[in-house]
Write a structure and sequence with these properties.
The strands form 2 sheets. Strands 3, 4, 5, 6, 7, 8, 9 and 10 form an 8-stranded mixed β-sheet that branches. This protein has a two-stranded antiparallel ribbon with strand order 1-2. The mean pLDDT is 95. The chain is α/β, with parallel strands linked by helices. It is built from 14 helices and 10 strands. Helix 2 packs across helix 7, helix 4 packs across helix 5 and helix 5 runs antiparallel to helix 13. It folds into 2 domains: 106 residues, Winged helix-like DNA-binding domain superfamily/Winged helix DNA-binding domain (Arc Repressor Mutant, subunit A, Orthogonal Bundle); 181 residues, 3-Layer(aba) Sandwich (Rossmann fold), CATH 3.40.50.
Length: 343
């Protein structure tokens, strides 16, 4: 595998940001959030209480609006309007632009994000007639095949950059948790000839990974374990664990469960690698991440996280971040090692 010769960021960002306009429309049309905050600033918890919405998607929405330059967040987390929002998105302003968004109120994507805010649960996959969310849809072989192909094509850009960013010379065996097609394992195995690996992936995606690995000629060094990462035991003989674009599919309790299983299965000296798009620690952006987090919150049980949030979960398990490196398409890699017993 090799990196592309040109920069495809615009192609991928356009898709990642597809739900951001819908979220802004919800804030303007359905919540009239800016008028409310102009009269009474609040933090995320206050917004949840005022509008009867759930914390996970509300945090995502507020992070987006901060990244877009419409809200500011002080050190106490209180959200206030910027001059632009005050001038264009508040009732009674001579430049009130809320009517410009009114026709978007019944748009399907807007309805989806409003549903997520009100229920805390993901809406259905965009463009699908089914009401099943992404997690349920992945049990269908046809959907799993199409979705995994989509992630594999993105992985062909990300995987070579990941392999260049992580030093695996001291690692013996890699466990790629929720590894999808195996594209990240393939890139690492190609770069580090002494590395053997296991892709941990549930059916029916495990069969897709076996095909991908065989096509790369790596089936002698890379195996696939067809197990559920939440409910079944993990192998304990792998000294490098990889979560590439996995944690963002899950809410914080599930992320903590996965990292705890990793810490318990790692031998002494083992490392955890998290590869994902990361929010700034103060959740002011970057804008691409804030936009993508809206899409994730709409179709999965998760959102994007900051390095500080992930570092906090790892610290509770006795791990500390020892390296951080950008990869491609706005993503970064965090490498963690055990520093003390877990709390």
């Amino acid at each position: 595998m090799h990196s592309p010769h040109t920069d495809p960021s615009f192609i991928y960002r356009t898709r990642d940001a597809i739900a951001a306009a819908d979220a802004l429309a919800v804030a303007i049309v359905h919540l009239d959030l800016f008028t409310a905050l102009a009269h009474d600033p609040a933090d995320v918890a206050g917004v949840c209480g005022r509008f009867g919405v759930h914390p996970r998607p509300t945090d995502v929405l507020c992070t987006l609006l901060v990244a877009q330059g419409l809200l500011t967040r002080d050190v106490a987390g209180r959200l206030t309007l910027t001059a632009t929002a005050q001038e264009f998105l508040v009732a009674g302003s001579p430049f009130d632009a809320r009517a410009y968004y009114a026709a978007m109120g019944d748009k399907p994507g807007v309805a989806d994000f409003l549903k997520v805010l009100r229920t805390g649960r993901p809406a259905h996959w965009p463009g699908e007639d089914s009401t099943a969310d992404w997690h349920a849809s992945m049990l269908d072989p046809a959907f799993a095949e199409a979705f995994t192909a989509a992630m594999d094509c993105r992985g062909r850009v990300l995987a070579p950059a990941l392999a260049a960013a992580v030093d695996c010379h001291s690692s013996r065996r890699l466990l790629d948790i929720g590894g999808g097609s195996g594209v990240y394992t393939v890139a690492l195995a190609e770069r580090f000839a002494d590395l053997t690996a296991t892709v941990l992936e549930a059916p029916p995606v495990d069969a897709i990974a076996r095909r991908r690995i065989a096509a790369a000629g790596l089936d002698a060094r890379v195996e696939v374990a067809g197990i559920d990462m939440f409910t079944q035991a993990w192998p304990t003989d792998h000294d490098l664990h990889l979560f590439s674009n996995v944690l963002h599919d899950w809410d914080e309790p599930e992320c903590r469960r996965l990292l705890a299983k990793s810490a318990a299965a790692l031998p002494a000296g083992g490392r955890i690698v998290v590869h994902d798009m990361l929010l700034a620690d103060d959740k002011t952006g970057p804008l691409w991440a804030a936009e993508y987090s809206v899409l994730l919150s709409t179709i999965t049980q998760g959102r994007l996280y900051s390095a500080a949030e992930i570092a906090g979960w790892l610290a509770d398990l006795g791990f500390g971040i020892i390296a951080r490196q950008p990869t491609a398409l706005g993503r970064s890699v965090l490498v963690a090692a055990r520093q003390r017993p877990s709390r």
